[in-house]
């Protein structure tokens, strides 16, 4: 091996060792733990204790159902909203565009505990501003934290508010990479703005939108903060418990590390399958 190659690997060695110790080995070890019964001492191999339980556990299917509901409703709505926001932020008619771009991106940098507390206050049954507005138009206040459907809607609203701007900035970067000549040629051919959006902008943005969809799918499969902080650990009655929260409850509340590892690998497998399906659906036809 040439000296320069050995030198390069020598400089990389500290990082590779840390990466292997704190990333590669935990992944392998957690996979091995998923095949062990960790509720006994010493731990023993038992496929049925974790993977067998997973297929018959109603609590797991409840968490999976809640996660998929959020995924199916929230991700398309958020991506559509982010696309519209990106187009508006890219408009030359908009004044103070840098200020608006920062404002839409700001929710991502807000502390999770702070923004969860704000949402709990806003949607409070007794003194929340949302229920006051609902009462002002003659409707009955909604008990957002005691009704499973209302709590699920609140989670979807919160996640969309937090991440729509982030995806809009990514899509905006894709918009700005589209050559202006394409739009000028379309305008000369008397193609309207709406037609330009659907026949030029969206097709050229497809790789960027797919990227945002894949990121959103992975993020939704890991969703933990909102149901934990906003709806009080997946309440009411597990109505908003997601797979991420279910994993946390098994691993760090029940200390059932084997079952938690099995749940983690199931989450990863589902996220990979859904992401690959999105990439397959959005592939360019040959």
At CATH's second level, what is the architecture?
Orthogonal Bundle
* Secondary structural class: mainly alpha
The CATH H-level superfamily is MetI-like
> How many structural domains does the protein architecture include?
1
Which fold does the CATH topology refer to? MetI-like fold
- The Cα radius of gyration reads 24 Å
**What topology, given as strand order, has the largest sheet?**
1-2
* The CATH class: Mainly Alpha
Unreliable segments (pLDDT under 50, ≥5 consecutive)? Answer: none
Instruction: Give the helix proportion (percent range).
Output: over 70%
How much of the residues is beta strand, in percent?
under 5%
Biggest sheet, in brief?
Answer: 2 strands, antiparallel
Question: What is the overall shape?
Answer: globular
**Mean pLDDT score, rounded?**
90
Total helices: the number is: 12
What is the distance, rounded to the nearest whole angstrom, between the alpha carbons of the first and last residues? 43 Å
H/E series, N to C?
HEEHHHHHHHHHHH
Subcellular location: Cell membrane
Transmembrane segments: 7-28, 63-90, 102-123, 150-175, 196-218, 257-281
Main location: membrane
Domain ABC transmembrane type-1: 64-278
């Amino acid at each position: 091996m040439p000296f320069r190659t050995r030198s390069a690997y020598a400089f990389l060695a500290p990082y590779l060792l840390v990466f292997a110790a704190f990333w590669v080995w935990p992944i392998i070890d957690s996979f091995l733990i998923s095949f062990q019964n960790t509720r006994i001492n010493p731990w023993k191999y038992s496929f049925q204790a974790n993977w067998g339980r997973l297929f018959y556990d109603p609590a797991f299917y409840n968490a999976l159902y809640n996660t998929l509901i959020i995924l199916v409703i929230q991700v398309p709505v958020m991506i559509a909203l982010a696309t519209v926001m990106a187009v508006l932020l890219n408009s030359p008619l908009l004044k103070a565009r840098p200020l608006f771009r920062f404002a839409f991106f700001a929710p991502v940098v807000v502390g999770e505990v702070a923004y969860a507390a704000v949402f709990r206050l806003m949607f409070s049954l007794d003194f929340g501003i949302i229920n006051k507005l609902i009462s002002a138009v003659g409707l009955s206040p909604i008990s957002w934290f005691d009704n499973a459907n209302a709590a699920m809607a609140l989670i979807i609203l919160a996640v969309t508010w937090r991440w729509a701007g982030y995806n809009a900035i990514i899509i905006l970067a894709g918009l700005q990479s589209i050559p202006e000549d394409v739009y000028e040629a379309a305008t000369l051919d008397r193609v309207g703005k709406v037609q330009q959006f659907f026949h030029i902008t969206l097709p050229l943005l497809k790789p960027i939108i797919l990227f945002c969809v894949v990121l959103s799918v992975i993020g939704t499969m890991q969703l933990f903060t909102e149901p934990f902080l906003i709806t009080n650990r997946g309440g009411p009655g597990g109505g908003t418990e997601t797979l991420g929260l279910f994993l946390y409850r098994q691993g760090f509340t029940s200390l059932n590390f084997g079952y938690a590892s099995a749940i983690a690998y199931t989450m990863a497998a589902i996220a990979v399958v859904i992401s690959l399906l999105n990439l397959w659906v959005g592939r360019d036809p040959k």
